[in-house]
Amino acid sequence: MTLPRLDASRARELVGRFAGQRVLVVGDAMLDRFIVGQVTRISPEAPVPVVRFQSEHVRLGGAANVAHNIAALGGKPSLVAMVGADAAAARLREQLEAAGVNVSGLVEDRSRPTTEKVRIVTERNQQVARLDYEQDADAAGEVQQALVDRVEGFGSEASVLLVSDYLKGAVTRPVFEALLAVASAAPIAAAGRTRERDHRGGRIPLIVDPKIPHLAAYAGATLITPNHHEAEVATHLRVRTDGDAQQAAREFRRRASCDAVLITRGDQGMWLSASDAEGSIPAVAREVSDVTGAGDTVVATLALALAAGATMAEAAMLANHAAGIVVGKFGPATVTAGELSELL
Asked: Between the N and C ends of the chain, which has fewer C-beta atoms within 10 Å?
């Protein structure tokens, strides 16, 4: 079962409404640092390649990349996340501000480093090694309370709430409960105007890009977006065919107690299971360069589409097209509203 195609004029209309939509992103922010070089020989000290340095660049990762994608698509994101008291935190803030992301929601935790992933890659974009700087214990005490306070402070201004969970400690049960409370209490500002609360029990949309160990904590979310591996782990079902995806998505909805599930399936596209729409969305990627961060682009597009007044199926199809663009780029990347409109 394939969902009906999204009319191009309707799609462009929705993308045109992305501008100015406020989205609160809560989750694990990180830096992705790439050291690029040329493999010249195998080391005489150990059977490993020797990489001759050529260049280095830094990109936003995790929840920071989600916020960056929202800004690139024309939205107004605020980011609530943890950072350390280090040079990486300063670089993260600088890059976020340059991207147009509100950084006043960042909470400093001096007991941990800013999460940073350092990748050594060749000039042909082949990864040789990765070094992670992180401390992934759950936020607690004053740091956790600061995260809750910022969720409550920024959430009331948002049209959509978005959780980007990478299991690095920012998304705790109290933080998620604060998001649920905000979703139930905050007024909805969508498509450039205040609108009446919709049929979802009077809540504004709460989207979760999940990690399965936290599955039980996501109960009450509007939409959860597992990839097919995560769906398999959560449901104990194999996902190979559309029939498998349908069964897994329905079981995932039941186990997670959420309104809708969108399983991302790589080159097999996506499968949406919602109360008012269910079916396959074929992949649209023209050439795959790097799938890193594609899930961040998907949830960012979903959030802005729902804020713009899209149905769940329309939002999923727009997100599928955005993913098709971003996988053609290297590393955590973004898609602009212009690129998305041109593809549509």
From this structure: N
pTM for the whole structure: 0.90
Longest dimension (CA), the chain: 69
What is d(CA 226, CA 266) in angstroms, rounded to the nearest whole number?
Answer: 11
Is 157:187 a contact under the CB 8 Å cutoff?
A: no
Q: CATH homologous superfamily of domain 8-31+61-116+134-343?
A: Ribokinase (3.40.1190.20)
CA distance 102 to 254: 35
Domain spans in the chain, listed from the N-terminal domain onward: 8-31+61-116+134-343
Cβ atoms of residues 231 and 272 within 8 Å: no
Q: Is 21 helix (H, G, I), strand (E, B) or coil?
A: coil
How big is the CA angle at 172 (ends 170 and 177), to the nearest 5 degrees? Answer: 120
Instruction: Give 114-141 pLDDT, tens digit per residue.
Output: 999 999 999 888 899 999 999 999 999 9
The pLDDT-based confidence of 330 (bands split at 50, 70, 90) is: low
Question: How does pLDDT run across 226-285, given as a tens digit for each residue?
Answer: 999 999 999 999 999 999 999 999 999 999 999 999 999 988 999 999 988 999 998 875
Catalytic residue numbers, as ranges = 296
Residues recorded for the chain: 344
DSSP states along 179-202: HHHHHHHSPPEETTEE----TTTT
Query: Quick one: pLDDT at residue 291?
Result: 54
List Cβ neighbours of 329 (8 Å cut-off, separation of 6 or more). 289, 290
Q: Which of 8, 68, 6 is nearest to 32 (CA)?
A: 68
Q: Report the distance separating Cα 257 and Cα 250, nearest Å.
A: 10
Which amino acid is residue 313, in one-letter code? A
Q: Are 234 and 252 in contact (CB under 8 A)?
A: yes
> What torsion do the CA atoms of 187, 189, 195, 196 make, to the nearest 10 degrees?
-20
CB atoms within 10 A of CB 125: 12
Q: Return the half-sphere exposure (C-beta side, CA atoms, 13 A cut-off) of residue 8.
A: 4
How confident is the model at residue 335, as a pLDDT? 84
What average pLDDT does the segment 75-94 reach? 97
Are the CB atoms for 2 and 140 separated by under 8 Å?
Answer: no
